[in-house]
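=== RUN LOG ===
request id: a7f3
mode: sequence -> structure
chains: 1
length: 179
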Amino acid sequence: MNLPHTLGVEFGAKVIDINNNHVKLQVWDTAGQERFRSVTRSYYRGSAGALLVYDVTRRETFIHLTNWLTDCRNQTTPNTVILMIGNKCDLNDQRQVSSEEAKEFAQENNLLYMETSAKMGTNVEESFVSTAKKIFSNIERGTIDANTMDSGVSFPVSSMMHASALSDSSSQYPSTCQC
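=== RESULT ===
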């Protein structure tokens, strides 16, 4: 399966159940290419969470995480949930970034970490759900104010997430990332 790269921004939404609460995830899949960086920065503002996605078979995407993380942290609050995702884990024989190296980077930068395979569907839904659960937990604890978020959960290879509680819309976010 050869999916095209995201150009600009793609939007989607999905309602999930967390602790018997309907939580609507509004997903903004932003382009990871450097030429879109100035545009995608604005999508971080108001985000309760961010998924920073890199390709385990392309070291340059891992190296760019530092820039995406800086942008994310400069545009969000200190309590924004950030999940770093190594995509294409099904291509282990083509890896340029080891799981150990990625985990170390995530730990040094206080990020959650997960590996996915969009092609195989491995951990794709889990990445959204685990991030949403952490956001919801922060809202319950009062470390994130749901009233100051811009309406959802956001994503750039880098991807962002905005989480808003409520709404029973049944539209779907894309089940595969296109990084």
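=== NOTES ===
The longest strand covers residues 9-18.
The CA atoms of residues 33 and 157 lie 8 Å apart.
=== END ===
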